[in-house]
Design a protein that fits this description.
With 208 residues, the chain is an alpha/beta fold. It has a single domain, classed as TIM Barrel (Alpha-Beta Barrel), CATH 3.20.20.70. It has 7 helices and 10 strands. The chain has an 8-stranded parallel beta sheet with strand order 7-6-5-4-3-2-1-8. The protein binds ligand LARABZUK. Keywords: Amino-acid biosynthesis, Aromatic amino acid biosynthesis, Isomerase, Tryptophan biosynthesis. GO terms for molecular function: phosphoribosylanthranilate isomerase activity. InterPro entries: Aldolase_TIM (IPR013785), PRAI_dom (IPR001240), RibuloseP-bd_barrel (IPR011060), TrpF_fam (IPR044643). Pathway: Amino-acid biosynthesis; L-tryptophan biosynthesis; L-tryptophan from chorismate: step 3/5.
């Protein structure tokens, strides 16, 4: 069954709800520029509600000190969503031993070729590129051309992200063969404000 990550939750009740509805991972955005930003102080309360869902810390070009603080919170999966090089990902993996994911923005076939360079990553998140001039590297609710993934042989376990919704996720899975999907904007009523009904509908559509 397709695995699901609900990203950018900031409300403990919604964390519990998403976990109860079957989310496999819940993403917490430790990025100040984000409308879904959570502080390290708030994270402890959120983590307590995750149940069997695995918490994922979304970080953008984190320094070693931030990584240490996040791991000290008890989070064992890091999603790197900045311009981290393959060498940096290898160093983070070696220093922490936790699960490390690397997000890659895709707009052309050569973007997918970079995936093979991230040999230390445990998982890849294949996402849309941010719009030109954006102040954030992800979470814009934009899809990329899924046909770019036709015939792609993923070097790692991976998730499809970018502009997914309850309405399009089944088609996205069918076209790309994605074993897992990630959503943020598509389960929001307003930017940064998640909606229970949309979260439930997304999980059900992805797992149907
Ligand atoms: O959510 C953010 O604001 C964010 C900020 C900085 C880096 C990444 C960010 N989000 C990434 C995601 O939530 C998802 O992994 C992915 O980009 C899909 O987002 P969406 O298209 O909004 O579903």
């Amino acid at each position: 069954m397709t695995q699901v990550k609900i990203c950018g939750l900031t409300d403990p009740d919604l964390v519990r709800f998403a976990a109860q509805k079957g989310a496999d991972w819940i993403g917490f955005v430790f990025v100040e520029a984000s409308p879904r930003h959570v502080t390290e102080a708030a994270a402890a309360t959120l983590l307590m509600q995750a149940g069997r869902a695995v918490p994922v810390a979304l970080l953008v070009d984190p320094d070693d000190a931030q990584i240490q603080r996040i791991v000290a919170l008890g989070i064992r999966t890091l999603q790197l969503h900045g311009s981290e090089t393959p060498e940096r990902v290898t160093a983070i993996k070696a220093a922490t031993g936790v699960e490390v994911w690397k997000a890659l923005g895709v707009a052309a076939p050569e973007d997918l070729e970079r995936a093979a360079l991230y040999t230390a990553a445990d998982r890849l998140l294949i996402d849309a590129k941010p719009p030109h001039g954006a102040d954030r590297t992800g979470g814009h609710g934009l899809a990329f051309d899924w046909t770019l993934l036709e015939g792609w042989s993923a070097p790692k376990p991976w998730l499809l992200a970018g502009g997914l919704t309850a309405e399009n996720v089944a088609e996205a899975i069918r076209l790309t063969g994605a074993p897992a999907v990630d959503v943020s904007s598509g389960v929001e009523r307003l930017k940064g404000l998640k909606d229970r009904a949309l979260v439930q509908a997304f999980i059900e559509a992805a797992k149907a």
